[in-house]
Amino acid sequence: MLTIEDTAIPAVKIITTRRFGDERGFFTETWNRRRFAEAGIDLDFVQDNHSLSGPAGTVRGLHFQSPPFAQDKLVRVVRGRILDVAVDIRRSSPTYGRHVAVELSAENGRQLLVPVGFAHGFCTLEPDTEVIYKVTAYYAPEHDHGLAFDDPGLAIDWPVTRAAAILSGKDRTHPRLAALPEYFS
């Protein structure tokens, strides 16, 4: 059984799968293609990614791949907590430039479905946070792009400032939304 919650942007979904617990811990199916398809989410995932971020305040993103290697993502946390963010970068969308921010944790078991046409990123809220996400297209370096996580035009309420955020060199150089080429119309 799974629960699908709409967000402020209908294309982005919060998904929670049922956990079966006892004195040993719990068991859950985080992905079951048939069950997800019955619920209207019929995606062909081709790759799983796993990241470990040591310090709290690590920001990864905002990332996306352009067509024809654009990716849907299903994101979950297996240790720690994150603020997970999806920004609509589809120019013709009525929610262009708006975002959804959701706390995902190992404890709450929530997953975020980030569709094609969205930039995605997260900030770790605890040390040693591990994030796993499924994607529908293989990594294609020539189609790998980013958006400045701290673009004031996005008005994302990150739990860290740019000065305090732990970023990769690449993530420090992404353009603001106003300067982003049109990848998704």
TrEMBL record:
<comment type="function">
    <text>Catalyzes the epimerization of the C3' and C5'positions of dTDP-6-deoxy-D-xylo-4-hexulose, forming dTDP-6-deoxy-L-lyxo-4-hexulose.</text>
</comment>
<dbReference type="InterPro" id="IPR011051">
    <property type="entry name" value="RmlC_Cupin_sf"/>
</dbReference>
<keyword id="KW-0413">Isomerase</keyword>
<feature type="site" description="Participates in a stacking interaction with the thymidine ring of dTDP-4-oxo-6-deoxyglucose">
    <location>
        <position position="139"/>
    </location>
</feature>
<dbReference type="Pfam" id="PF00908">
    <property type="entry name" value="dTDP_sugar_isom"/>
</dbReference>
<dbReference type="InterPro" id="IPR000888">
    <property type="entry name" value="RmlC-like"/>
</dbReference>
<dbReference type="GO" id="GO:0019305">
    <property type="term" value="P:dTDP-rhamnose biosynthetic process"/>
</dbReference>
<protein>
    <recommendedName>
        <fullName>dTDP-4-dehydrorhamnose 3,5-epimerase</fullName>
        <ecNumber>5.1.3.13</ecNumber>
    </recommendedName>
</protein>
<dbReference type="GO" id="GO:0008830">
    <property type="term" value="F:dTDP-4-dehydrorhamnose 3,5-epimerase activity"/>
</dbReference>
<comment type="subunit">
    <text>Homodimer.</text>
</comment>
<dbReference type="GO" id="GO:0005829">
    <property type="term" value="C:cytosol"/>
</dbReference>
<feature type="active site" description="Proton donor">
    <location>
        <position position="133"/>
    </location>
</feature>
<comment type="pathway">
    <text>Carbohydrate biosynthesis; dTDP-L-rhamnose biosynthesis.</text>
</comment>
<feature type="active site" description="Proton acceptor">
    <location>
        <position position="63"/>
    </location>
</feature>
<dbReference type="GO" id="GO:0000271">
    <property type="term" value="P:polysaccharide biosynthetic process"/>
</dbReference>
<comment type="similarity">
    <text>Belongs to the dTDP-4-dehydrorhamnose 3,5-epimerase family.</text>
</comment>
<dbReference type="InterPro" id="IPR014710">
    <property type="entry name" value="RmlC-like_jellyroll"/>
</dbReference>
